[in-house]
């Protein structure tokens, strides 16, 4: 085995490597801040709807009143589950992961889009909006069919988040619940060159179409080191044991003991740590406040006990802070989503960021094709 001479240049996992410019979002780990086109995500989460944020991420400015109305009309008109997508979903076994269903649905929607191959900004914006409008129906219907429930048709009188919950549960959610869910959607929408967004940009750099890039991004998001962590967080809570009658303090003590054992066994605990943020994820305080609202609304202090216990123990032992997937896991559980649906919720939101990056990549494209250092056998020949 030989090592080539350029091994000093290897940046494993591309850690610390700046690959390109982006105007879409700015992550500043020193100040724990995240800006979408200059706006702090906390302000957007507090004052905007998901529709306004989607418009901002795609267009660089918040929409005017008329632009928002037109956008909402288009989004609402695109919510119904495509009948072919429904037939394909119905053919998929319920043993497959819901992320496989999302990935397949994105691919089918691309195959059915007559403008799939048109890579103009105008066509890509239309495709992005269509995917954003369509994905909640996919996610909602997939959870329902696994429970033996029928498809719920969308409601045009509801906003994006309220309709998402309506299509999933078939009842109108309380405003507190809609708001907490909407905050999670806004926080998940965009986060610079994370693994799935970079995947979308790599695929786009070959001049492949938008749906191919989104389909690949969904695959990247599935892994537990990325989006799949929100599911793993809830699995941890379940492993520790959720008992709605337990007090905050008792649940906290059990969670602390679990974490101490996990860390002693050198386990990686999902929902903690981040490649970029080393002093805490900018999005966590906002999502934690939304989770607190849900805990109050549902009257579930033991969930807060588990949350606090794990967080405190991890902080004391290793100083590692939670990432966004940590509060979203229990939030989605309280709202009533099944654990395997959590990462598809992330997909529904992140479609906005992925498609914005796809359009930005195309504006100034260069094929993404890094080098590798060969460490296989020296040249040899067949006998
Ligand atoms: N649990 C326990 N230890 C951890 C954790 C964790 N969640 N995260 C990092 N560490 C420790 C590592 O064991 C390592 O310790 P060592 O130096 O003693 O070996 C050190 O911290 C550095 O960890 P790396 O994995 O090398 O850091 P990296 O920047 O590569 O990883 C990552 C970041 C992948 C997110 C990591 O923190 C992790 O695996 N976390 C759990 C998965 C997770 O929650 N992912 C969600 C990411 S955010 C999102 O997608 C919204």
Please give a structural write-up:
The protein has 16 helices and three strands. Strands 1-2-3 form a three-stranded antiparallel β-sheet. It starts with 24 loop residues before the first strand and ends in a 20-residue tail after the last helix. With 383 residues, the protein is an all-alpha fold. The N terminus is likely disordered. Strand 2 and strand 3 form a beta hairpin. The structure holds acetyl coenzyme *A. Belongs to the citrate synthase family. It holds the Pfam family Citrate_synt. Keywords: Acyltransferase, Transferase, Tricarboxylic acid cycle.
Topology readout:
Layout: E1 25-28, E2 33-36, E3 39-40, H1 41-47, H2 50-59, H3 65-77, H4 83-91, H5 98-112, H6 121-146, H7 160-169, H8 175-188, H9 195-205, H10 210-221, H11 229-240, H12 248-264, H13 284-298, H14 301-318, H15 325-335, H16 342-363
Antiparallel strand pairs: 1-2, 2-3
Helix pairs in contact: 1-8, 2-16, 3-6, 4-5, 4-6, 5-6, 5-10, 6-7, 6-16, 7-8, 8-13, 8-15, 9-10, 9-16, 10-16, 11-15, 12-14, 13-15
Acetyl coenzyme *A binds at residues 225-227, 229, 268-275, 318, 320, 323-325.
Pfam families: Citrate_synt (PF00285)
GO molecular function, one term: citrate synthase activity
Family: Belongs to the citrate synthase family.
């Amino acid at each position: 085995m030989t090592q080539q001479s350029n091994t000093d240049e290897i940046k494993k996992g591309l850690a610390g490597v700046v690959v390109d410019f982006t105007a879409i979002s700015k992550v500043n780990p020193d100040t724990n801040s995240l800006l979408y086109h200059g706006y702090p995500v906390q302000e957007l989460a507090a004052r905007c709807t998901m529709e306004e944020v989607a418009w901002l991420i795609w267009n660089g400015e918040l929409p005017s009143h008329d632009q928002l109305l037109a956008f909402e009309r288009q989004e609402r008109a695109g919510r119904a589950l495509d009948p072919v997508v429904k037939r394909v979903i119905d053919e998929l076994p319920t043993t497959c992961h819901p992320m496989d269903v999302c990935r397949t649905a994105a691919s089918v929607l691309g195959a059915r889009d007559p403008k799939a191959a048109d890579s103009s900004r105008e066509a890509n914006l239309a495709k992005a909006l269509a995917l954003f409008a369509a994905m909640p129906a996919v996610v909602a219907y997939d959870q329902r069919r696994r429970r033996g429930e029928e498809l719920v048709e969308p409601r045009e009188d509801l906003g994006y988040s309220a309709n998402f919950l309506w299509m999933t549960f078939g009842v109108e959610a309380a405003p507190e619940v809609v708001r907490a869910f909407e905050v999670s959607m806004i926080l998940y929408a965009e986060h610079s060159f994370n693994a799935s967004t970079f995947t979308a940009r790599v695929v786009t750099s070959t001049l492949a179409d938008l749906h191919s890039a989104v389909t690949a991004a969904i695959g990247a998001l599935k892994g537990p080191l990325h989006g799949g962590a929100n599911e793993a967080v809830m699995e941890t809570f379940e492993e520790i044991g959720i008992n709605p009658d337990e007090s905050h303090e008792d649940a906290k003590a059990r969670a602390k003991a679990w974490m101490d054992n996990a860390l002693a066994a050198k386990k990686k605990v999902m929902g903690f740590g981040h490649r970029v943020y080393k002093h805490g994820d900018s999005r966590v305080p906002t999502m934690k406040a939304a989770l607190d609202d849900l805990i109050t609304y549902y009257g579930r202090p033991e969930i807060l006990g588990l949350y606090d216990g794990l967080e405190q123990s991890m902080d004391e032992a290793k100083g590692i802070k939670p990432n966004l997937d940590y509060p979203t896991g229990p939030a989605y559980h309280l709202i009533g989503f099944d654990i395997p649906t959590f990462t598809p919720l992330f997909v529904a939101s992140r479609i906005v960021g992925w498609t914005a990056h796809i359009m930005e990549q195309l504006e100034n494209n260069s094929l993404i094709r890094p080098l590798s250092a060969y460490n296989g056998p020296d040249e040899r020949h067949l006998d």
